[in-house]
Structure formats: C-alpha cells, structure tokens
Design brief:
mainly alpha; 82% helix; globular
C-alpha cells in the first residue's frame, strides 16, 4: 500500500485495531446472527459506552470503546451479508 495521504497511517492503524477486535469478539462469542433489532440494542449500548468515555476524558479508553463499537457494527454488517447470501 502506498501512503500518499497524511492520514493513511492513522487509518491503517485504526483498521488493524478494528480487525483485531473482530477476531477477539469471534473468539469469545463465535459468529453472531442476531436479528436487526437485537443488533441495534447492542450498538446503542456500545454508543453509550463511547459517550461515557467522552466525559471521562481518557483518550485511550475512548479509542478502545470506539474500536469495540466499530467492530460490533462490522459484525452486524457481516451478519446481514451472511443472511442475504443464505436467503
């Protein structure tokens, strides 16, 4: 990958963190195939964790919560794709 944009190193780092978190989630819970209403509940709770860390003013904890939330949204997208492929 050629890095021509100054923000690309950060982007690569964040994507690596999100993918590592997805692996961690899969290792804990396996493939999740919830309905969309349940995924929405999970992600709303995750967004609440982000809000809490915004007020906590700890950038490390905020980053972790954002990565975990992104990975959860990715898991939801994967579930939708599996559902559409199988249905």
């Amino acid at each position: 990958m050629t890095l021509s944009n100054p923000s690309e190193p950060a982007r690569v780092s964040v994507l690596e963190a999100v993918l590592a978190e997805r692996e961690r989630q899969d290792n804990i819970w396996g493939a999740q195939n919830h309905d969309d209403a349940w995924w929405n509940i999970i992600t709303v709770e995750r967004n609440g964790d982000i809000a809490r860390e915004i007020y906590g003013q700890n950038e490390t904890k905020l980053f972790i919560e954002i990565v975990q939330t992104c990975a959860t949204y990715l898991a939801w997208a994967e579930a939708v794709r599996r559902r559409n492929k199988n249905g």
